[in-house]
Amino acid sequence: PAPPAxxxxxxxxxxxxxxxxxxxxxxxxxxxxxxxxxxxVHPEVRALGTEPHFFDRNYHRGLEWYRSLMPRTLDSQITxxxxxxxxxxxxxxxxxxxxxxxxxxxxxxxxxVTRAISDYTQTLSKKPDIPTFExxxxxxxxxxxxxxxxxxxxxxxxxxxxQSWLQYFPLSxxxxxxxxxxxxxxxxxxGKVQDFLGIKRVITDKHxxxxxxxxxxxxxxxxxxxxxxxxxxxxxxxxxxxxxxVIEQLRDFYRPYNIKFYETVGQDFRWE
Length: 272
Known about the structure:
The protein is of the alpha/beta class.
């Protein structure tokens, strides 16, 4: 039946909530927030701003709960979410594959030694009484035995974690972003991300300026306003000073993992 005369329908919100077609699955302290903030400038991308932790902590809530968190998108737009802990979660690859085998995965990687120090620096800012970096790194320093059960060390063993993903996804569906190049050449790295997502290269050099205080690139304009947009205070923290010998021992520890990772993905990240 026709609506009564004089009554106006409520404003229709454009778009539909859809499950993500691309997920930034890792890694913590690699540059995932920067990738998300940069890619959401693209008119064909809508991204969830918070980390939903669906495939690790909230899977029991079901796909409809997950979908309900997503931003509304038009048919021409891609939904993206990021939760960096997925990369090291054993169940995540199978769960994402069972949602959609065609999901595109983005992994932001960074020199694992620098990443571990950054991870420790972040934890220290929240829990000032934790043991020293050196104390947590080694089970036995004189023997050079690294404690791989400490999360800050374990996350950087990229080649190990990647094997779980390759059981469910072809390498062609996983795109690796260099955390280092994201700082030195953000437009170049984001150009490759746009190609991987199958969208036009809209985000270019003109979107970025280098913030000398923070030591990394910022957006000239954010998605929601015409003002420059830099990542929050927690990004670009000054790292804790670590004994160079400890760093050398860690480099030795990660070298075989790095080489295996380069060989697997066919890309040399030059962390050596």
